[in-house]
Amino acid sequence: MSAHSSLHLAASPIEAASDDAFPHVAIGRLRRMGRLSAPLPTALGGEGLCEPERVGDLRRLLTEIGRDSLPVGRLYEGHVNALALVLRYADAETREVLARDALDGHLFGVWNTEPKDNGLTLDPAGRLRGAKSFASGAGFVTRPLVTARMPDGRSLMLILRLKAGERADLSEWRVHGMRATATGTVDFSGLHVGEGAVIGAPDDYFRQPFFFAGAWRFLAVQLGGMEAVVETHRAHMRATGRSSDPHQQARFGRSLIALESCRLLVAQAADIVAAEALPPERVIAGVNLARAAVDQAGLDVLTLAQRSVGLAGFLDDHPLEAQMRDLATYLRQPAPDFALTGMAAHVLDCETPLHALWPEVRSQGCEA
Ligand SMILES: Cc1cc2nc3c(=O)[nH]c(=O)nc-3n(C[C@H](O)[C@H](O)[C@H](O)COP(=O)(O)OP(=O)(O)OC[C@H]3O[C@@H](n4cnc5c(N)ncnc54)[C@H](O)[C@@H]3O)c2cc1C
Predict the structure, then answer these.
(1) Per-residue model confidence as pLDDT tens digits over 7-50
(2) Rounded to the nearest whole angstrom, what is the distance from the C-alpha of residue 48 to the centroid of ligand 1?
(3) What is 210-356's CATH number?
């Protein structure tokens, strides 16, 4: 997990030939390296990556995977998110059963988004009806954590057991980038919820600050995607002998500022979430600060790379082409306007001096 290493998760030659191929090779590699079980506590056979004091390691791993491949980063982030929810909310027995599934190599995911007119519901007899949309790893994730609405309107987290390929519809995932994530629709109508499926109490999924603050993990992955774009931008300048041009230097310098400022803000966001020491609204504002910064900076590094590399970067044999499509697509996350204005409103309304809003809360070993 050093800053210079690579997990070698870029698409295999066969998978790269069609960039909508699910990254079996990379996920298999993560499985063999023990990364699918690493989020579990050591007592359950993992490496404790979800423990607060390991937040720096988890953040660096997410960025490292995102740097190699944003689709793989998205899938791994969903896997970590599901295990983190299980560890936080499930009872001891369910935690143990699901930890064994992770150790056995099952891929987890969190499927919350749903079609407006066909959302997932759970009836009193334990039967599901409806679907989830934009579900990453559809057909490949065999332990999805889904949210299902109960008759009283509250929402319950369930871990469902699926076989590979079961119920997945990828026909509408014809998309600009992130094609390899297999983000599809999964209809669960008729499925009966088995024993041990329920995670936590109703509406636990939406408990704050964890619901909004968990965004720090996708920011860490996006940061890796930004880094890949800036690295390719640099490589192109060097390969074409254009590094000494002052216009190119100025654009590259602005790219680096965008990237490295985000690295600091994402590290700060991860640390304040892990510390659980500040009021929930302040934690959420700190994460939203990083969200708004990454959203803008991600678009900036794309524009700067496009201007510097020029048309060559749009040819499909140039690495920038797929990196740009993946980053532009993955930057689209829920309610970005609210992230910016909610954070601004919180700071405008509070009396705390700016320098004391997010005091240093770094846990041991979490230096940026
Ligand atoms: C590659 C990829 C994989 C994904 N995988 C999963 C997954 O596995 N599981 C899952 O649950 N989801 C997944 N998602 C979906 C994701 O969680 C979000 O639902 C999705 O990215 C939201 O994007 P959006 O642009 O439609 O957001 P929106 O929130 O609709 O934002 C679009 C624009 O509308 C504005 N806006 C938002 N709300 C309002 C409002 N009420 N009034 C006016 N304007 C508004 C926003 O600020 C923004 O400007 C995935 C998404 C991507 C890109």
Answers:
(1) 878 777 667 767 789 999 999 999 999 999 999 999 999 999 99
(2) 30
(3) 1.20.140.10
